[in-house]
Amino acid sequence: MNRKRIIIALFSVLGVILIWDSVFTWNYVRSINLGIVLPGLLGLLLISIVLKMVLVEGPVIKSRRLRSLIRWALIICMVFFVLIEGLIIADPYLHRAELAGRVDYLLVLGCGIWPDGRPTLALINRLDKAVEYYAGNPHVKVIVSGGQGPDEPMPEAEAMAEYLIGKGVPETSIIKETRSTSTMENFKFSRELMQPGTEEPVRLVFITSDFHVLRARILAKRNGFDAYAIPAPTPSVILFNSYLREFFAFIKSMVLDY
């Protein structure tokens, strides 16, 4: 009985926290994606389990074999999730820009602007890393990559270029890639601006958020880059949601993005 009460209390608290996380994050970003919705769905699931434990005696699934199968499936999924998340967390430290040597291009991946055209905090963090890198490597061409979303007043690349110019990066050193709507397209369309018509590998330093480095680096390789990353910090308000969503985005990209 004590164990049951502990589980009920734990699941109740976690459920409320996860639902609150979805509401709070949505209120900040004002958009819907899997990373925002999923915590709330998990919270509702935990609350449902609590209600079942309080109101219904005995297991819902009567077959012991089926319950065991579901339990093992959940354990395997959890182990796989932890493994992938571990790789996502570790990868930014394994392919750092310092290992790239001299490169000719710095690619900054877009990640959203506000309806008034201002870069989001996550994008500002990426752009500030670009300013820092350019200060020590003024020979590079800085490619800002990002198209225009349905709630954006301009292509992300336009807002990114404007921000960099305001921070002292010369306009002549900036190349704008304004068509991409995904990470795969970021690299595909940027590659066309660098060396059109050639399939020779290009050594590249790219900047993206820390949670995004592993997937971006693999997609860069699929587009002919020998890529090294500068990870930008993810704003704390979306940190949990971003890493959670990235697990599913990573699986999708590994299967479909070629």
Explain the overall architecture.
The protein has about 260 residues and is α/β, with parallel strands linked by helices. The protein folds into 2 domains: about 1-60; about 95-255, HUPs (Rossmann fold). About 55% of the residues lie in helices and about 10% in strands. The chain has 8 helices and 5 strands; from the N terminus they run H-H-H-E-H-E-H-E-H-E-H-E-H. The protein has helices spanning about 1-30, 35-55, 65-90, 120-135, 155-165, 185-195, 215-220, 240-255, and strands at about 105-110, 140-145, 175, 200-210, 225-230. It has a 5-stranded parallel beta sheet with strand order 3-2-1-4-5. Helix 1 (about 1-30) runs antiparallel to helix 2 (about 35-55) and helix 2 (about 35-55) packs across helix 8 (about 240-255). The mean pLDDT is about 90.
